[in-house]
C-alpha cells in the first residue's frame, strides 16, 4: 500500500530527535510514502490544522507537550488520522493508556524495519475497515472495574486483542477484529507457551500472513498462560471470535482501567 485516492500516502512524524526523523524517513520513503517531520507536538498540531495526513507517528516522551497530551488534543480537535506512538520499554504502560485514547499502536525504541512496518501497514489498512459501535479506542465512558466483571464480559486492548472473563477467574484471549482483518490470510500463528507469562501491552501472539509479513499482537492483560488453543494453530483458523490463550491474570485491578468494555 503506497497510494491513496489523492496520491502518495502522507505521514507526519512528530519527534524531538533528528536521528528518529532520519530513520523513519529512510524506511517509509522506500515504501513510497511522503514523510514530513516536525520537532514538537505544537508544530504537529499546526501542520495537522493546515493539511490532512494519512498517518501520524509521534514520540511518547517529548518536552512541553508529550504524546498523551497530543492524543488528547487530537481527540478534542477531531483529527481523524491514525496515530502510532514511539516509546521506550519503561513507558509501555503509558503507551497502552495512549491506545485507550485512540492510538492505533506503539513501536518500542530501538526498532527494526519490520517492527515499524507491521504497525504502519495495519494502521493504514484498518482505516479502510468498518469500526464497531462503542468499540476499542472509545475512552469517553468509565473504565471497566475488575470487581464488576461478569462471566462472559469482554474487554479490549484497542485495535489489538480481547479478553473474555470466565467463571473460574481466568480470561480467554483472542485477536481483535480489525487487527485480524488487516493482517490478511494467516499462514502461521506463534503463541506464548503454556506456563509462560504474558504482559499487558507486550506481544504474546504473532501472526504471519501469506505475504510473509509478521504482525505482533499486544496482550490485553498480564498473567500466566494456562492453556493454548492448539486446534486454532495447525492449520491456522483464526477469526475475531477464536480464543488462542487462556490466561490467569496477575495484575487485573491495576490493568483493567487501560481497557475498554464492550
Outline the structure in words:
The protein has 7 helices and 17 strands. The protein has a 7-stranded antiparallel beta sheet with strand order 12-15-16-10-9-8-17. A 5-stranded parallel beta sheet has the order 4-3-5-6-7, sandwiched between helices. It has a 3-stranded antiparallel beta sheet with strand order 11-13-14. The chain has 2 domains: about 5-125, Rossmann fold (3-Layer(aba) Sandwich); about 145-260, OB fold (Dihydrolipoamide Acetyltransferase, E2P) (Beta Barrel). Helix 3 links the parallel strand 5 and strand 6 (about 85). Mean pLDDT is about 90; it is low at about 1-5 and about 135. Helix 5 crosses helix 6 (about 175-185). The protein is α+β, with helices and mostly antiparallel strands. About 25% of the residues lie in helices and about 30% in strands. It starts with a strand and ends with a strand. It has helices at about 20-30, 40-50, 65-75, 90-100, 115-125, 175-185, 250-255, and strands spanning about 5, 5-10, 10-15, 35-40, 55-60, 85, 105-110, 155, 160-165, 170-175, 185-190, 195-200, 205-210, 215-220, 225-230, 245-250, 260.
Summarize this, please?
The chain has 262 residues and is of the alpha+beta class. The chain contains 7 helices and 17 strands.
* Helix coverage percent: 25-40%
Which fold does the CATH topology of the largest domain refer to? Rossmann fold
| Succession of helices and strands | EEEHEHEHEHEHEEEHEEEEEEHE
Q: Kindly give the count of domains.
A: 2
Cross-sheet strand order for the largest sheet: 12-15-16-10-9-8-17
* Rounded average pLDDT: 90
Distance between the termini: 31 Å
